[in-house]
Structures are given as C-alpha cells and as structure tokens.
Amino acid sequence: MNGFLTSDRIWGVTVFVDHARDYTYGHLMRGLDLTETLLAKKAFEMFAVQGSNTVKQYHADNGQYADEGFMAALLLSVQLVLITKMALLKDRSG
C-alpha cells in the first residue's frame, strides 16, 4: 500500500444552497484554493443540469468568491455573483 488513502485528505467543503428548490449540495474539497472552488462550482452546475436547472446567479458570504479567477469563470458562464458587504469588510480587517 502506497499511502494514498491517508495522504489524500478532505480539507473543506463548499455548500451550495438552492433556495428556490429547497436543495443543498455539499462538495468535499482537498484544498481551499481557487482550483478546488472552481471544481466544486462545476460539479454543482453539472448536478443542476441533470435536474433540468441552470445556475444564473451566486450569492456568497465569503470574499474568496470575489477572486479574479472565480469572476472570470462567471463571465464565461454568463452568471452573476452577489458578495455580501459584511464579508468584504471582514476580509479587509485582517
């Protein structure tokens, strides 16, 4: 055994909530970087398509979603993101 089962750890989760359909989707992540966040976004959108739904907008409370890479992915998908003011103030404070 080469140890890959113990070295590949889950470090976080991104939770997507569809308020209109009363559904929550959690995507386990091996890191907290932009690449993992975009993989979670893609997985959620693929799941939504299976139910004949499309994601038109995200509402985030974490400044990570204001990252240029995430915004670029939204532009490519013609989607919007609303970042709460409180999250942006928290990120600036420290």
Distance between the termini: 43 Å
- CA radius of gyration is 15 Å
Q: Biggest sheet, open or closed, and with what strands and sense? A: 2 strands, antiparallel
Structural class: alpha+beta
Number of strands: 4
Put simply, the count of helices is 4
Outline: globular
Question: How would you describe this protein?
Answer:
With 94 residues, the chain is α+β, with helices and mostly antiparallel strands. The longest helix has 17 residues. The chain starts with a helix and ends with a helix. Strand 1 and strand 2 form a beta hairpin. The chain is 43% helix and 23% strand.
Explain the layout of strands and helices.
Layout: H1 4-7, E1 12-18, E2 23-29, H2 34-50, E3 57-60, H3 68-77, E4 80-83, H4 85-93
Parallel strand pairs: 3-4
Antiparallel strand pairs: 1-2
Any key phrases for this structure?
94 residues, alpha+beta, two-stranded antiparallel ribbon, two-stranded parallel ribbon, 4 strands, 43% helix, disordered C terminus
Q: Briefly, what is this?
A:
The C terminus is likely disordered.
